[in-house]
Design brief:
Length: 190
């Protein structure tokens, strides 16, 4: 089993989410089928270049909801689970050190709720000391076989979880309808 991890935040909440799938190979194959399916969608050449470099939730949520729905439909063809944990910010000041500690705490909660042995891939922060801290802390869990950071532009599972994170953020913050949220299976970690 492999867990792809990303985080998101809004004014009041910080969220860490994980997409647990059978394998990286099956996740990659599903992503490639999705990408092939949307190849002929009507997208401006400029946007197509941006989107196909990295399927970021920001642009899909704003301009290409059909692509987002297509992505979710493809995710739903896999054997998967989604886990997420939410931190309610105490005030408007959410400094980097606190954010790092909260991220590790939330990820630990998620990992401890998974019964099987897992490999973990988390989105890079381009902050080597923090990434090492994540790895050192999370690998203490008995069910973690490996944990590595990767660039989401190169890791399809991270692009899936990035889009799932935005859905969770909108659901938790109640700024959006729950249409997307209902398309997927979630495990909220308290």
């Amino acid at each position: 089993m492999i867990l792809f991890v990303d985080e998101t935040e809004c004014e009041d909440y910080f969220i860490v989410a994980g997409l647990l799938t059978e394998s990286k190979a099956k996740t990659d194959a599903t992503f490639k089928k999705f990408k092939k399916k949307i190849k002929n969608f009507p997208i401006s050449p400029k946007d197509k270049e941006k989107i196909f470099t990295e399927f970021k939730s920001v642009i899909l949520d704003k301009k290409y909801q059909r692509i987002k729905v297509c992505m979710l439909e493809h995710i739903n063809t896999m054997d998967y689970s989604i886990y997420y944990a939410v931190y309610k910010k105490k005030n408007n000041s959410f400094y980097q050190q606190e954010k790092e500690n909260v991220y590790i705490s939330l990820l630990n909660k998620i990992v401890s709720h998974i019964d099987s042995e897992i490999d973990i891939i988390f989105d890079t922060f381009n902050k080597a000391d923090f990434e090492l801290k994540i790895i050192e802390s999370i690998k203490q869990n008995n069910n973690v076989l490996t944990i590595v950071q990767r660039d989401s532009r190169l890791e399809y599972g991270l692009q899936f979880i990035d889009n799932i994170c935005s859905i969770i953020r909108h659901h938790v913050y109640e700024k959006d309808s729950t249409l997307y949220y209902l398309l997927t299976n979630y495990n909220t970690i308290k």
